[in-house]
User: Fold this.
Amino acid sequence: MRSAEYTRIAQQLPPVYQDDAASFQQVDAFLGLADELGEQLVERLADLPLTLGPDASLRWPAGLPLDAGADALHTALIGQYDDLAQWVAFEFPGSWGRADAGIARRRQFLSKSARLWRRRGTPRGFLDWFGVYFGTDSEAARPYLLEHFKVPNGDYGSEPFTATLFVPSTAQFSDYRRRAEATEFARWYAPAHVAMRVCFVLPSMFADLNVFGDAPTLVPEGDVGQYETDVLAHQASLAGLLCSVVSVIDHATGIHVFECGTQERPIDQLGVGRLPHPGD
Assistant:
């Protein structure tokens, strides 16, 4: 069905092209090949509110037979969402899975992708991208990104274009593979000119150092002395956070040569192969 929002390419040419009706008809026919592709894209864009809207899960994909089955439905939706994600150079992680929950997360990401893309490359945009990717939208799970230049007179203050991403060591990052995925995310999606490291910390550290609070601001006719005190306190909190860098690894996540409580069977917590036995 031809979209009412699409204007044929030939109609956008200067009027001089229409002086000769026969020539214009020929040009219109040649450009019509590109028009067919353009109309298909416009129709897909027009259907996006239905595909990604709140009731998208209730709609059957166009062109898919009604008796195709659940597997075919999942394949069609994932294929459609993968194509849309290419518009923002994003590849859905395998950890999202292909079941209903994974499809819902894909739909959620695509509904926010335009807004996220506009802020890509900024600290806020990076954290929002991270939150959607790993589902760390709650305040307790939200990471903190510290650019080192904001900590003056410190060991890292003189190093430009460096940063540390502090990720609360919540249950969702208890698995080593999940932590490796977070590190890989920082490597791929941090700005190319920024060297960023990832550190997993106890959630209580943020509360103790109060780094989530807004940076001090000097209001008109404000107390300059109090503002200076607040700035120094804020810098001290940032320096304390930066100087206490240590990735927290609980006992279950750590690497154990022997299974706890026995000296008979070695186990491999990383899942990359059997660890060697001392007697081998």
